[in-house]
């Protein structure tokens, strides 16, 4: 009987975080469990695993350093998150050391390699994330329901969504729901105040993943307003669930939806976002165009595609038993 090689996945976000990094780690552990023995942990200090996959160059830097110190010959894969790719690797020494130490670097959108320093670009692999497809819901024509999903923190730019809700306060046929925990208490307080003053805005707080995905399917459009993203899982869940996306025009989003996708607004531009929401309600043809754009991308987010990418990434790193 052939023993499966051991892999450790280091993720600073475990189940309690209920965020995209945790969903990635959990999905990858499931995809790899047939060929490998997989352990997930928030930190690594010692162990006999053959390969480490570390999510987050900066936040997993201590585990990465400990792994490299224990045996520099053991393969190390570092997955660059949005804050890594578009902020930390430019100015954080620990994140930069993770780049140097890694045998392979993984980015989660097609434009991600452009932000990796040239010295390390030959290490980079693009691995698009995935989500199991769901049957699209039949949606009411009585109103347009928009949904933003993301914990309330600066990187997700909830203020853009807040301001769009204020601009649309007189449009009772455009409803704006918001899912996410208040990682920034000040943003949570602003969301609470907005829900009291704008009857068309609802802050639903943090919800379980299953409930969140059901609400994504029920919405007419998902709004993704982030200022930095490595590869937002929530966009993939919308695309594979029959809900079109309105997204900030940042590389992390364009690298997932494509340069020609018609549903972008300038980052931080609430007027442009509110205009797109009005057009989606008043001219339903826009929703059809957005949906067609998402449908063209859906096959790239298939689970079998992501699993194949992972196995191909690991294959040359695996030592013969």
TL;DR?
The protein has 321 residues and is α/β, with parallel strands linked by helices. Helices cover 40% and strands 17% of the residues. The longest helix has 14 residues, at 285-298.
**SS-based class:** alpha/beta
Distance between the termini: 12 Å
| Rg of Cα set | 20 Å
Helical stretch count? 12
Number of strand elements: 12
- Strand arrangement in the largest pleated sheet: 2-1-3-4-5-6
Percent in helix = 25-40%
Q: Kindly state the mean pLDDT as a whole number? A: 94
Uncertain runs are: none
**Oligomerization category of the chains in this entry:** single chain
Give the overall shape, derived from the CA principal axes.
Answer: elongated
What is the ordering of alpha helices and beta strands? EHEEHEHHEEEHEHEHEHEHEHHH
Task: Report the sheet with the most strands, covering strand number, pairing sense and barrel closure.
Answer: 6 strands, parallel
Please explain how this structure is put together.
This protein has 321 residues and is α/β, with parallel strands linked by helices. It is 40% helix and 17% strand. The chain has twelve helices and twelve strands. The strands form two sheets. Strands 2-1-3-4-5-6 form a six-stranded parallel sheet, sandwiched between helices. Helix 6 links the parallel strand 8 and strand 9 (201-205). Helix 2 (61-70) packs parallel to helix 4, helix 3 crosses helix 4 (93-101) and helix 5 crosses helix 10 (270-282). It is elongated, with a radius of gyration of 20 Å.
